[in-house]
Design goal:
This protein has about 120 residues and is an all-beta fold. About 0% of the residues lie in helices and about 65% in strands. The protein is built from no helices and eleven strands. The strands form two sheets. Strands 2, 4, 5, 6, 9, 10 and 11 form a seven-stranded mixed beta sheet that branches. A four-stranded antiparallel beta sheet has the order 1-3-8-7, with no helix packed on it. Strand 5 and strand 6 form a beta hairpin. It is elongated and about 50 Å long. The protein starts with a strand and ends with a strand.
């Protein structure tokens, strides 16, 4: 079984910054695509940033402010969030598509439990 654990959330003022981490552990053979999603109260869960190989994608609302990255040796993904705005307030979730050591013929989708980011005005 694989677990994803997010960390780094907190309360910051508008214009501030945070760095989120997502650590994957378990019977991991390889990690394919990884992404950050967020969900504000009463809203749907939306993609924030995606990293797949050498390609990254960002929601329009965070382009130029957020940066997604990976440390393959640590099975960890990061989201550097700068120039934060109140509308960035949400629970941020890590998602990963992972190939397990026990079955290398397919991949599985995993989600973390989320970390709260609150940006005050």
């Amino acid at each position: 079984q694989v677990h994803l654990v997010e960390s780094g959330g907190g309360l910051v003022q508008a214009g501030g910054f945070l760095r989120l981490s997502c650590a994957a552990s378990g019977s991991i053979f390889s990690i394919n695509a990884m992404g950050w999603y967020r969900q504000a109260p009463g809203k749907q869960r939306d993609l924030v940033a995606l990293i797949n190989g050498g390609t990254t994608n960002y929601a329009d609302s965070v382009k130029g402010r957020f940066t997604i990255s990976r440390d393959n040796a640590k099975n960890t993904m990061y989201l550097q969030m700068n120039s934060l705005k109140p509308e960035d307030t949400a629970v941020y979730y890590c998602r990963a598509v992972i190939v397990l050591t026990t079955n290398k013929e397919r991949s599985y989708e995993y989600w973390g439990l989320g970390t709260q980011v609150t940006v005050s005005s």
